[in-house]
Design a protein that fits this description.
Blueprint (H helix, E strand, L loop, with lengths): L1 E3 L6 E3 L12 H11 L2 H8 L3 H10 L4 H4 L3
Antiparallel strand pairs: 1-2
Protein backbone atom coordinates (compact mmCIF):
# COMPACT_ATOMS: atom_id res chain seq x y z
CA UNK A 1 0.00 0.00 0.00
CA UNK A 2 1.32 3.45 -0.86
CA UNK A 3 0.75 6.39 1.49
CA UNK A 4 1.59 10.02 0.87
CA UNK A 5 3.72 11.68 3.54
CA UNK A 6 1.91 14.67 5.08
CA UNK A 7 5.19 16.57 5.59
CA UNK A 8 7.13 16.20 2.34
CA UNK A 9 4.49 14.84 -0.06
CA UNK A 10 6.52 11.80 -1.16
CA UNK A 11 4.83 8.45 -1.72
CA UNK A 12 5.97 5.82 0.77
CA UNK A 13 5.30 2.06 0.57
CA UNK A 14 3.80 0.73 3.81
CA UNK A 15 3.24 -2.94 4.69
CA UNK A 16 1.67 -4.68 7.68
CA UNK A 17 -1.10 -2.27 8.56
CA UNK A 18 -3.89 -3.51 10.78
CA UNK A 19 -4.31 -5.96 13.59
CA UNK A 20 -2.52 -9.30 13.36
CA UNK A 21 -4.76 -12.40 13.48
CA UNK A 22 -4.81 -14.30 16.79
CA UNK A 23 -4.71 -17.79 15.25
CA UNK A 24 -5.61 -19.57 18.49
CA UNK A 25 -5.76 -23.34 17.83
CA UNK A 26 -9.17 -24.97 18.14
CA UNK A 27 -7.72 -27.40 20.68
CA UNK A 28 -6.92 -24.53 23.06
CA UNK A 29 -10.39 -23.02 22.60
CA UNK A 30 -12.09 -26.35 23.36
CA UNK A 31 -9.90 -27.06 26.39
CA UNK A 32 -10.56 -23.63 27.84
CA UNK A 33 -14.30 -23.97 27.26
CA UNK A 34 -14.50 -27.37 28.88
CA UNK A 35 -12.44 -26.18 31.85
CA UNK A 36 -14.32 -22.93 32.54
CA UNK A 37 -17.76 -23.96 31.21
CA UNK A 38 -18.35 -20.36 30.17
CA UNK A 39 -17.62 -18.60 26.88
CA UNK A 40 -16.86 -15.33 28.67
CA UNK A 41 -14.34 -16.93 31.04
CA UNK A 42 -12.73 -18.94 28.24
CA UNK A 43 -12.34 -15.79 26.13
CA UNK A 44 -10.81 -13.95 29.07
CA UNK A 45 -8.27 -16.74 29.60
CA UNK A 46 -7.37 -16.90 25.90
CA UNK A 47 -7.12 -13.11 25.58
CA UNK A 48 -9.73 -12.80 22.84
CA UNK A 49 -13.37 -11.83 22.45
CA UNK A 50 -16.39 -14.04 22.99
CA UNK A 51 -17.19 -13.64 19.31
CA UNK A 52 -13.79 -15.07 18.40
CA UNK A 53 -14.57 -18.19 20.44
CA UNK A 54 -17.98 -18.59 18.78
CA UNK A 55 -16.51 -18.03 15.29
CA UNK A 56 -13.67 -20.52 15.88
CA UNK A 57 -16.20 -23.16 16.90
CA UNK A 58 -18.56 -22.34 14.03
CA UNK A 59 -15.77 -22.60 11.47
CA UNK A 60 -15.24 -26.20 12.60
CA UNK A 61 -18.92 -27.15 12.77
CA UNK A 62 -19.20 -27.01 16.56
CA UNK A 63 -21.31 -25.12 19.04
CA UNK A 64 -20.44 -24.06 22.58
CA UNK A 65 -22.87 -26.53 24.13
CA UNK A 66 -21.22 -29.35 22.13
CA UNK A 67 -17.91 -28.62 23.84
CA UNK A 68 -19.15 -27.73 27.33
CA UNK A 69 -19.95 -30.98 29.10
CA UNK A 70 -22.32 -31.00 32.03
Amino acid sequence: MKVQCPHCGKSVAVNGLGRKPLNIPLKNVCESLSLHRSVAEAAKELGCSEGYVFNALKANGLRARDVIKE
